[in-house]
Design brief:
The N and C termini lie far apart (62 Å). The chain has a 7-stranded mixed beta sheet with strand order 5-4-3-6-7-9-8, sandwiched between helices. By secondary structure, the chain is of the alpha/beta class. It is built from 12 helices and 9 strands. It is elongated.
């Protein structure tokens, strides 16, 4: 089958299975199968797929039709200009998490050699972006999931940042040394188990539960992390957390006694990052 026909057939299949953005998904999966870029797809519509390429494309389209995110099929996601490996063991890094990076950079740039810990590192996206941007920072990254840490370590090695980050399996900051860090940063799970529909179906069904859900209210991880971070931060140090839709007030309440609180909205104007100074 020719490339353009294969694309059209894939778009029809994805549309029939109610997959959003069917053209973009069909193109992404074809680029993955052909190891090509988008320009190649447009320049070579007549290219005849080999039997092997066709079989792999059909398989990828069938998988995507079940709702499995394209990133878990291709194994890649871009974040902060870096190509990251992702697997179903980690949350797919989201563009809005880049606001967390911007906030930390603003707060940490003036420090000589800031000590930073990324809590719930997942793919490692936050720790890796900060290590890349802040060459003098000492960066640690923790996660409760050994499988996630494996992915984060692999990303660090691929990006040649493995000598810059210490990865550790840990339950949040339990047992962390007191008054040690300049920045505690986290994008914790925050979907309430009582309202799973607050996450999209693809997220609920395919992304790791431990990365998405946080107890009945969705606030359980913040409730444990805020006092632990207060303990682990140096005086004047910052806690920077991503927040989900509609929990700004509840998270603000948890840090209301801190020295200073700053809230940053995302590009849609939704409060997205809470920064609190010890
Ligand atoms: C929302 S994901 C964020 C992943 C990544 N930092 C990002 O921004 O894409 C939350 C992460 O926290 C981890 N996590 C959940 N509970 C934890 C706990 N009690 N201690 C440490 N990590 C935890 C999960 O395994 C998951 O990797």
């Amino acid at each position: 089958m020719q490339l353009k026909q294969a694309l059209t057939a894939a778009i029809d299949t994805l549309t029939a299975n109610a997959v959003g953005s069917p053209r973009m998904n069909a193109e992404t999966l074809l680029m993955f199968v052909l190891h090509s870029d988008r320009a190649y797809l447009y320049a070579h519509p007549e290219y005849e797929l080999t039997a092997d390429e066709q079989a792999r494309y059909d398989e990828a389209v069938a998988e995507r039709s079940t709702g499995k995110p394209a990133q878990y099929i291709t194994g890649h996601q871009e974040f902060w200009g870096m190509d990251l490996i992702v697997s179903p063991a980690v949350l797919i890094p989201r563009p809005e998490t880049e606001h967390v990076i911007e906030t930390v950079l603003e707060l940490a740039r003036t420090k000589q050699a800031p000590r930073i810990v990324d809590v719930g590192t997942g793919s490692g996206c936050i720790a890796l972006a900060l290590a890349a941007e802040l060459p003098w920072a000492r960066v640690e990254a923790v996660d409760i999931s050994p499988a996630a840490l494996e992915v984060a370590r692999a990303n660090a090695a691929r990006l040649q940042l493995d000598h810059r980050i210490i990865f550790q399996q840990r339950d949040l900051l339990a047992g962390a040394p007191a008054a040690t860090y300049d920045v505690v940063v986290s994008n914790p799970p925050y979907v309430p188990e009582s309202e799973p529909e607050k996450a999209q179906r693809e997220v609920r069904e395919f992304e790791p539960k431990v990365a998405v859900f946080a107890g009945e209210s969705g606030l359980e991880v913040y409730r444990r992390l805020v006092p632990q971070a207060h303990e682990a931060l140096k005086p004047g140090g910052w806690l920077v957390v991503e927040i989900g839709y509609s929990i700004e007030r509840a998270v603000h309440e948890l840090v209301k006694d801190w020295a200073e609180v700053r809230i940053t909205p995302d590009l849609q104007g939704i409060p997205r990052v809470v920064a609190a100074r010890r």
